[in-house]
Specification:
Order of helices and strands: EHEHEHEHEH
Strand content: 15-25%
Oligomer: single chain
Shape: globular
Distance between the termini: 15 Å
Structural class: alpha/beta
CATH topology of one domain: Rossmann fold
Strand order of the largest sheet: 2-1-3-4-5
């Protein structure tokens, strides 16, 4: 069947690299998007190609682009069963404190440990 596929959306290259390495170590196939528009396009293409993503990890805010809070609305319209995790260093944002109301399945606060990442993903996949 292959490895579970995770789409990571973050605009910071260091976060992309660290998260990609963590997910690879945990046994996931990883693809990277730098903003919400790109993530939505990649999600749709993967779904259409019969190799859908098992989950997404989305940064709440993207400098100069669409962040997770806006992108999740479009993703839910495309796929009501989308399994997205919101990731943020802003613990007081309503999309973090009430993540389910925004359509996210889980939240992970930056910075996080590999064990936390593993637990969150196992909980939604």
């Amino acid at each position: 069947m292959g490895k579970p596929r995770i789409l990571v959306m973050d605009d910071e290259e260091i976060i992309q690299d660290v998260l990609s390495n963590m997910l690879d170590f945990l046994g996931y196939e990883v693809e990277i998007a730098s903003n919400g528009t790109q993530a939505i396009d990649m999600y749709v293409k993967a779904k259409e190609s019969q190799k859908p993503f098992n989950a997404l990890i989305m940064d709440l805010t993207i400098h100069g682009g669409m962040g997770g809070k806006d992108a999740i609305k479009d993703l839910i319209r495309i796929d009501p069963e989308v399994k997205a995790v919101v990731s943020s260093g802003y613990s007081t944002d309503p999309a973090v404190t009430n993540f389910q109301e925004y359509g996210f399945k889980a939240v992970i606060a930056k910075p996080f440990k590999i064990e936390e990442l593993s637990t969150v993903l196992k909980g939604i996949i």
